[in-house]
Amino acid sequence: MKRLQLLITAFGVLLSLNTFANALVSIKGKVVDATTQAPLVGATLYISDLKASTSTNSNGEFTFNNVPAKGKFLLEVRYLGYKTSSKLIDLAVPQDISFALAPSVIESAEVVITGTPFSSNNKTNSLAVVSVSRDQLAQSAATNLVDAIAKVPGVSQVTTGGAISKPTIRGLGYNRVLTMVDGAREEGQQWGDEHGVQVDQFSAARIEVLKGPASLLYGSDALGGVINIIDDLVPAEGTYNGNFTTNYNTNGGLTGSSLMMQGNTNGFVYRGRVSYKNAYGFGYKDHVVPNAGFNEINTSAMLGLNKTWGYTHLSLSRFATNIGLVEEGPDADGNYADEDGNIISNSDAKKRSLNLPFQNINHYRAALNSNVLLGGGQLKSTFAFQRNIRKEFEETKDEPGLNLGLNSYTYDVKYSFANNGVWEPTIGLQGMYQTNKNSGEEFLVPDYNSNNVGAFAYLKRNFENGAINAGVRYDYKKIDGKDLVNEDGDQVFNAFNNKFSNVTGSVGFAFDIAKNLNLKGNIGSGFRAPNIAELGANGKHEGTFRYEIGNSSLKQETSLQFDLGLTYQAENITLGLNAYSNKIYNYIYLSNLNSETIDYTGEEGDVETLPVYRFLQTDASLIGGEASVDFHLVKALHFENTFAYVKGTNNATNSPLPFIPAASLNNEIRFEPQIKGLNDSFIKVGLTNVFKQDRIDAFETETDGYTLFDAGIGTSFKTKKGKFNVWVTGQNLTNKLYYNHLSRYKLANIYNPGRNVSFGISVPL
């Protein structure tokens, strides 16, 4: 708690900077139609580096208040039906800021902030980045945040029912994909299978998915990519508003609701949100999976200042969930039975109260985010404290069997030097200190302390038609596993001490090589130190179907990836191609060698035979690519197509790597009619085609391909408070029986969810 007090003290110090602020400054401008010069009413403008936003009035005019008197920042404007536009503005130079937006049926790339220290247009970003908007997240009918982005080309999910989804990017997941929340890396025992990302699904304004090694800017665990969950920019000066969103899914009876209120008074900004989700077990065909439900409640608050010296925001949140765990799959007739062998009816399986076993997760987060304008440059910092408490209840609801408490203290400080928009140099220092402690009667990983630190230097050179970038980084990590003897005097864990270090580098480019044609490429190395489970696991816990044994002699993983992308964007068509080759040295993977098993004795003395999985290492290669084609035969009709494929190979044996997602092809036709009095209306139908996965490791089984049919309809209308949205989305409407290759329930012969129809509304307040 002392470190949490330090965070709050630091917040108070930064608040005092307001005393030294310059006089308030305002900037004004106008947004018009490039063809007719008519003002565009309700266009939204953003300065991401200042976390500031505003919109145009009835004359197409906009005003930013409480902005710095000097500094160069990227200003972005978006308006539906027009190309997104951005320009670098110098606040020290008086100017008439105007945007003339060109009508477009093509949704152009948004400004992204994930891959570079400065906000930049995606066309000058050498890494592959995809952005998913709040509307796309809401209308996906997803059961959790990762499920909502699972159709992004190159992104897959390891699922355990509807509540638990873990992201994989280009065949890499778990500790190889880093999740960023409130500017801080999420730390919540992410090495485990049986829980997902501990973030409020409703809180994300958008999600940016960075595909490929990002160790240069993010350090260890970003070897495969980054999922950056971005919260809302603060509302315009003098604005107070809110939103209520709710949805219902017919499959699993999922109800989800979220209430948010926020405001901005003379640069003092604030936001509060509370969200709740509840579901019983998901179903397929005529069966409902018992004890597969969950409930979740999330609360969060943000207080901060947006002033002429920059901004500082303090965010506090609590994520709390209870998730039922399924012990056994159906019998030969497809029915589920209780411990006494009695068939569980669908009506009983639809009860929302959870039975044993289940898990309870509480994740507390405090993050202090600041951007202080200093010496003509920007000093960005994030200091965060997280406490993750994970409990598994097996025999009684009073005492957990497994009880893990993880404390994480992270810091990220970057200074971007003053520049004229041509040379953009940045240096940074990042680190994390962790303590993990067992408090239950069962043990899976040992108590441990971990400390890692990294420093980097990054340089970007902008040109009229593109940019090049390069950087270098050094990381050091130390992890100390503790000795542990249980109550019976048995040695559960032996103490170990491991140290890892690595130098990482990256070089990339992005250029418009012809009209409407953009080429980008990147060569980057990645680094990942083994996680605590890989080093020290020794046990089985509820919700899994295996016994894991770690290896404290594991080496660090390093990688070298080549990435090349080509984008063509014309008036009625966009084409995108990405290809990559990733060589990973000392790749760590799980394997059930020689079908090894162990007789495991539970708390009640019952014995079950479990397969033993051990952590091994080899050199590995992953090659693959993504493709997208978006046709607009007429203005209101979109035909979108995406394809993704990845092939993983164990170089030592020339055999397939385990847990590699199958190739997929997604097709969607979306009709957006213009209806008087309504906005953003759409009707869509789509096919999700997943191919057969027969490139499998020896202990895996093949997974047949399948095709799912989806559809949706929605619209919105304006009110005095904003847009009122309503939508209906259907998934797997043919009620197809199928297994996803990365579903952990496949091991128990439990199918993926069947037909689902989701109803949602979003009400401005």
Automatic annotation (TrEMBL):
Domain TonB-dependent receptor plug: 126-226
InterPro entries recorded: Beta-barrel_TonB, Beta-barrel_TonB_sf, CarboxyPept-like_regulatory, Plug_dom, Plug_dom_sf, TonB-dep_rcpt-like
Family the UniProt entry places it in: Belongs to the TonB-dependent receptor family.
Membrane topology (UniProt): Multi-pass membrane protein
Entry keyword annotation includes Transmembrane: yes
Predominant place of localization: membrane
Domain TonB-dependent receptor-like beta-barrel, first and last residues per copy: 244-733
Pfam families documented for this protein: CarbopepD_reg_2, Plug, TonB_dep_Rec_b-barrel
Protein's UniProt keywords contain Transmembrane: yes
Keywords attached to this entry: Cell outer membrane, Membrane, Receptor, Signal, TonB box, Transmembrane, Transmembrane beta strand, Transport
Domain of life, source organism: Bacteria
Species per Swiss-Prot/TrEMBL record: Pedobacter helvus
Signal sequence coordinates: 1-21
Subcellular location: Cell outer membrane
Protein's UniProt name: TonB-dependent receptor
